[in-house]
Structures are given as structure tokens and as C-alpha cells.
Amino acid sequence: MLLASLDPAAVAAGHDLDDAVRIAGSTLSRSDLVGAGTSVAERVGSQVGPRGRIAVLATPTPTTVLAVIGCLIAGVPVVPVPADVGVAERRHILTDSGAQAWLGELPDEPEGLPHIPVRLHARSWHRYAEPPPESTALIVYTSGTTGPPKGVLISRRAIAADVDALAEAWQWTSDDTLVHGLPLFHVHGLVLGLLGSLRIGNRFVHTGKPSPEAYAAAAGSLYFGVPTVWSRVVRDPDSARTLASARLLVSGSAPLPVPVFDELVRLTGHAPVERYGSTESLITLSTRADGERRAGWVGTPVAGTSTRLIDEAGDEVPHDGESIGRLEVKGSTLFDGYLNRPDATADVLGADGWYRTGDVAVVDADGMHRIVGRESVDLIKSGGYRIGAGEIETVLLGHPDVVEAAVVGVPDDDLGQRIVAFVVGVADPKALSDFVAEQLSVHKRPREVRIVESLPRNAMGKVLKKELS
Ligand code: MLC
Ligand code: AMP
């Protein structure tokens, strides 16, 4: 079963764990997770049919954990909604996904959907049949270069395959204590961190904010972080040194700067494992617990995954460590398409099963991969969040004070890339940043808004983004 450690028969037979999940000051045992999760499953099953979809406002709380577990037991797809979501993005996610109810926490504005509460102390011991592996577990909304976010259909099979492949690469076992403080509405924190732990059966600790002090205090063996988290950790040497007692530090979701890698080695004695992936493919490349960890490189394909590098003409690029090509991946961890968007799905997922990642990479003779960058400047990674320049531009253009807008990702020591909006108009920069936070989500707000006279354009009228920085 997908959440193997929550097998009700095994838990009833004594395979319990008192502190399976620690989150927001609460500790939940495996039997809490099974009993309360099954009670959620019953309520979800009685209120939405088997073809239903459920929205979960994914705050880092026991409520969210039980909501997700309950839906996975009932076989009802979960639509995680960002905890800091704004008005327009929330409306889009609800409409596009067709979610029939909110489960767990309610947002300020439920948009007319009914509410199914999660009762932390309710228990049910009903036994559900395991839903089919090909069924959709999650619909995770993620940004493209233009337009609103698309719903990525992630199957149970893909999650199981990815967690098992990573367990093999990282020697991840039930003896681990996995720690992170990442959001529960994206693959990194939700699929790898929470669902991974419930499949492997290790202890899971969510730190709330992923601060260096909280990571140090959690006394884990296995730590997950985005590069922003690791660069903050190395700027706090005392906290960093405490992580020497861990087994494995894992970085992903964005490029880990080489100086941060080197500082982690110096302060913790651990070379971090770097791994690469996406919402669409889950994690497909990683260095290994028992292999070379090379700063700036993201390793080899995980079990069950293949990759290829393609040039402009569609030919394969040599694996010489220097030749750059478009990265494509194939295997059991891939998504099943974008919800309601066969056009967008066909653009990236070939009939032959290869997924065009949009990243450019090199591969060396040993099969080690290095991500060189992205094909499009309009997909920004800020703090490990994927943000489309186009969605922010659309929102800014909807503000009455804005005449023209162009959004770029500018290199940033802390966030990797910082969102900067160039705006033509008579506007207050802070008000525009807040407007984006209110409409899209707080993490998508421009960190800087520069009011300019005009935007640089080519003869065709297209904005020359390379000239903006
Ligand atoms: C500021 N704030 C505002 C605001 N301006 N709030 C409302 N409106 C405004 N205009 C406040 C916020 O409320 C918050 O307050 C504070 O500013 C900081 O906000 P932030 O932007 O969230 O903090 P920051 O320090 O920049 O966050 C860094 C970070 C975060 C690393 C914690 O970026 C993060 O969690 N990143 C992880 C992203 C991730 O998991 N990506 C994985 C994608 S999956 P307060 O009080 O709440 O602090 C993937 C696949 C793979 O990529 O390979 O893994
Ligand atoms: P998301 O859909 O949010 O998971 O974002 C996926 C994108 O994050 C990938 O296409 C890459 O551009 C980027 N990414 C993820 N992991 C890494 C990594 N280790 N190094 C560089 N880029 C990464």
C-alpha cells in the first residue's frame, strides 16, 4: 500500500510508533494517524463521491496531515492549496480542479464550497481497500511561463516509485528521523517529506519555519531543505555545527550554490546530497548516500528513471561533461498530464513517454548530471518556489495604476532568484507588491518593484528581458 507504515493490520498488531509525526506542537502516533485518518476518509467518502476532489488548505498542522491521509485512504484526490494563497489564485485552483469541498482548515473566503472538518480526536477502524496504483493521489498546481498555474495529476504509483527509488539512493529507512520545515503544498515537503515518511515508516518532524535554529533543535538523522534554507544554515555556524550528528543532508528544488555546499562540508562534515526533479516528474536525479557528492552536480537517474540530452535538431548530445542539451526524463515517476489541459500536456509529454523538463543540462561520462539553467527566463525559482513571470505580469496589468509590466528573476544570494517587477505607470511599489501577494500568493510577491519610463523592446515590440536586471 502507498502509506505502508499505516497498514491498519500491522498497527493493530503492535507496529505502532508513538511519535510518527511531530508538527505544530503536536505529536501523532501511527495509530492516531490510522484512526483519525480513517475517520476523515469516512466523512470524505460520504460527502463527495469516488469521482470527487477535495481542497486542503495546506498549512503545516496536524489537520493538514490527517486531511491528506484521509483522502489517500478514501482514494479521493487531494488538491493542496498554498497556505499563503491569495484571492485570484485560490479561485483559479478551485474552479479548475472542480474541488467539491474544503477539508480541514478553512480559508478567509471559502468561495461557496462546503466544509468538512477534521476532528483530531475522532477514530474509525473501518478497513478500506487500497485504491488502484494508477489512480490520482494529488493535483498539485504549478506555474508555467504564462497563464495561471496548471494542475499536475500525480498518481499513487508515481509517488510510491519515487519514494522507493530515493530510499534506495539515500539508504533511507524506518530508523531515520526526517526533519524539514517546507510547505506541505508542493512536492518537496508533501510528497517526499510527509508521504515519504509515512511510506518508509520513519519519524517525521516538521519544524514550522525552516530556520537554522529549528533544524538544529530537531535532532534528526535526515534533513531536507531548499538551497535558501541551507544558505541560511551556513550563515548560522552554531546551528550548522549541530547538524554534524545527522546522517544525511539533502538539498533540492533549485541549484545549491557551490560556496554553500563547501560551507556545509566545513561546518557539518557532511557533503550534501543534491537531487533534482519537478512537480511533473517528481525526483529523477540524485547523488547517493554511498556515492560521490560533487558540488554543483545533481547525480545520476534514480532507479526506474532514464534521461537524455537533446540538441536543437532533436539529436542526442554526447555525455562529455561539457555539451549542453535539453534534459528529458522518462520513467515510473512521471505525472499523468495537466488537468483540463491536453494542449499543455502534449507540449511537454511525448507519446513515447519522454517528459521535456524545460531545463538545460550537461552529463559526464559517468552519467553525472549538472543543471545549467532553464530554457525560459520566464520561469523563476525564488526560495525554491516555481513562479511564472507571466502570471505576475497579468496581475500587475490588472492594477489601475499600471500601464506596462515586465517581471524577471534577478540573482539573489538568499533566494537564488529574487522577483523584480519593472512597471510603467504612476504607482506605489509597496502597494503593487502587496497587490500581487493578495491576488496570487505571498511567496509570489515581487521583492522589488521598479517604476520606469519605458520597457526595452525589440522591433517586434517584445520586451527584452535580458536588458532588465
Ligand atoms: C511580507 N510578508 C507579507 C508581505 N510581505 N505577507 C503578506 N503580504 C505581504 N505583502 C511576510 C510573510 O507573511 C512572512 O511572514 C514573511 O513576510 C516572509 O515571507 P516569505 O516570503 O515566506 O519568507 P522567506 O523568508 O522569503 O521564505 C524563504 C523560505 C521559503 C525558504 C522559507 O521560500 C520556502 O519555504 N521555500 C520552499 C519552497 C518549496 O518547498 N519548493 C519546493 C517546490 S517542489 P511570517 O511572519 O509568516 O514569517 C520542487 C520539486 C523539487 O521544486 O525538486 O523539490
Ligand atoms: P517545481 O515544479 O516547483 O518542482 O520546479 C521544478 C524545477 O526546479 C526544475 O525544472 C528545475 O528548474 C528546478 N530544480 C529542481 N531541483 C533542482 C536542482 N537540484 N538544481 C537545479 N534546479 C532544480
Description of the molecule:
This is Acyl-CoA synthetase. It holds the Pfam family AMP-binding. Residues 391-462 form the AMP-binding enzyme C-terminal domain. α2 packs across α3 (62-74) and α5 packs across α6. This protein has a domain at 379-467: ANL, C-terminal domain (GMP Synthetase, Chain A, domain 3, 2-Layer Sandwich). It is globular and about 70 Å long. It is an alpha/beta fold. It is built from 13 helices and 24 strands. The model has no long low-confidence stretch (mean pLDDT 97). It starts with 7 loop residues before the first helix and ends in an 18-residue tail after the last strand. Adenosine monophosphate binds at residues 142, 187, 252-255, 274, 276-279, 298, 357-359, 371, 374, 381, 386. Malonyl-coenzyme A (MLC) is lined by residues 182-183, 186-189, 210, 226, 228-229, 252-253, 277-279, 283, 383-385, 433-434, 437, 442-443, 445.
| Quaternary structure annotation | single chain
Compute the number of strand runs: 24
Give the number of helices.
13
Largest sheet: 9 strands, mixed
Averaged pLDDT: 97
Helix amount: 25-40%
The CATH class designation of the domain at 379-467 is: Alpha Beta
Stretches with pLDDT under 50, minimum 5 residues: none
Widest sheet: strand order?
A: 2-1-10-9-11-12-13-14-15
Named once each, the bound ligands are: malonyl-coenzyme A, adenosine monophosphate
Span from first to last CA?
Answer: 49 Å
Instruction: Choose one word for the global shape.
Output: globular
> Class by helix and strand content?
alpha/beta
Please state the CA-atom Rg, rounded to the nearest Å: 22 Å
For CATH, the homologous superfamily of the domain at 379-467 is named as ANL, C-terminal domain
Strand content range: 25-35%
